């Protein structure tokens, strides 16, 4: 199943199967009538059923405030062994944190694979849930996000504000 939904960061397309969410991509275009080409390319044998209502429910779960998620979300990704290593490393970056492409390369035991890490980040099929937006250049510059630099800044700002929020004492 797949569908379009609203998110705090603009329109998004979600796709899922019995194993979990397999696509989350951002879309700024109003051309939402057709199945995105990316889905057809990544899942050529799939039979797609559009369900915007279910996509909206899932988007509300995904983008809910921490502690307000109704259920644990399952994801299902396919990638090369290298991509999977990179995506797992991204999941270890805490909310509000960032890491450089080089730091990710070193963390997965491939210190000279900085460009390949960037390519793996750019091919991430599940935006936000696999937080490729948390990767920046060694210089501290935050650029080169597949779904736009402004969106990347908004994602990082939201996470930083949550990380800095003071929790009330009980």
Please tell me about this protein's structure.
This protein has 170 residues and is α+β, with helices and mostly antiparallel strands. It contains 6 helices and 5 strands, in the order E-E-E-H-H-H-E-H-H-E-H. It has helices at 37-42, 52-62, 81-91, 101-107, 114-122, 149-164; strands spanning 2-7, 10-17, 20-27, 99-100, 135-136. The strands form 2 sheets. It has a 3-stranded antiparallel beta sheet, with helices on one face. It has a two-stranded parallel ribbon with strand order 4-5. Helix 4 (101-107) crosses helix 5. The longest helix is centred in the C-terminal third of the chain and has 16 residues, at 149-164. The mean pLDDT is 88.
What topology emerges from the helices and strands here?
Elements (H helix, E strand, L loop, with lengths): L1 E6 L2 E8 L2 E8 L9 H6 L9 H11 L18 H11 L7 E2 H7 L6 H9 L12 E2 L12 H16 L6
Parallel strand pairs: 4-5
Antiparallel strand pairs: 1-2, 2-3
Helix pairs in contact: 4-5
